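job 3f2a | input accepted
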Amino acid sequence: MRHQKHKYKLGVSPSHRKSMVKNLASEVIDHGMIKTTITRAKAIQPMVEKLVTLAKVDTVANRRLAFKKLNDKDAVAKLFTEVGPKFVKRNGGYTRIMKLADTRVGDNAKMAYIAFVD
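job 3f2a | predicted structure (118 res):
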C-alpha cells in the first residue's frame, strides 16, 4: 500500500522526473528565480530547501552530498559560496512560491515563480 507516500508525478517517467527536478533545482540556484508551473515549483521546493540547509555548513562531505543531488559543479559552487552563507541565520523557509494570475498559452497551465527569500 502507498499510504502517505505522496510524490509529484508530473506526468513523466521516473527517470525523466528525476532529471527534470535536478535541472530545475540547479536553475533556481543559478538564477535565484525561475518561472514554471505551480506543480513543478511545489515539487522542487523541498529539494532546494534541503540543499540550502546543507550549504549553510561548507564541508567537503556536504559539497559531495550536494553534487550527488544536483550533478552540476557550477551550481554546487554557487550554492556554497553565495546562497548558503546568505541564509546562515535563517532556520528554514529559504524559498517562496509566487503564483501568477496568467496561465501558459499552450495548455492553460497555472504558472508561478519560485525564488529565494531576500
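job 3f2a | The chain has one domain: 14-116.
job 3f2a | closed
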